[in-house]
Amino acid sequence: MDIKEYLKERVDDQINWYDQKSKSAQKWYKRLQIAEIILASLIPLLSGYMPSYKWIAFIVGLFGAIIAVIESITKLNKYHENWIQYRSTCEMLRYQKHLYLTGSAPYNNQNETIDNIFVRNIESIISSENNQWKNLNTARENANDNEKVN
Question: How many domains does the chain have?
Fold first, then answer.
């Protein structure tokens, strides 16, 4: 297998796989979170009508149960964690691929050209932004987990 085949069959394949898995995990995470937000916001609204309509108590309880199920499914399938991890891996693979394709460090054995330095610096900026995004989302997730425990 030569390097072009490797790039196409292995690297591009992995980039596409992680990209698709990241998008799917993000979509499921956001869908479930939106459903949870809507149901949770309806509970206090409906609770005000419970004295007038006894059946609303059942609906409020049902919404609470559905919220618990949604939260359990979200945690079980780790949609948020997978979204972050898959996206980070996808972007790191792209980063390395671009460095290789442009012959930038560490994928060269001679002095770098100004173009190589430019590519390396741009890729470093992009990589730094991706790392900040990952850290921010991981910190937010940890804070949410701590709030639920307390």
Answer: 1
Instruction: Identify the burial level of 18 via C-beta atoms within 10 angstroms of its C-beta, where 0-12 means exposed, 13-18 middle and 19 or more buried.
Output: buried
Contact 27, 106 (CB under 8 A): no
Give the whole-angstrom CA distance, residue 94 versus residue 100: 10
Q: Specify whether the CB–CB gap between 63 and 39 falls below 8 A.
A: yes
| Whether 25 contacts 82, CB under 8 Å | yes
CB 75 within 8 A of CB 110: no
State the DSSP code for 110.
Answer: S
CA contacts within 13 A on the Cβ side of 139? 6
Q: Tell me which residue has tokens 């419970």.
A: 50
For the stretch 11-68, pLDDT in tens is: 899 899 999 999 999 999 999 999 999 999 999 999 988 888 889 999 999 999 999 9
pTM attached to this predicted model? 0.75
Which domain range does residue 8 map to?
A: 3-149
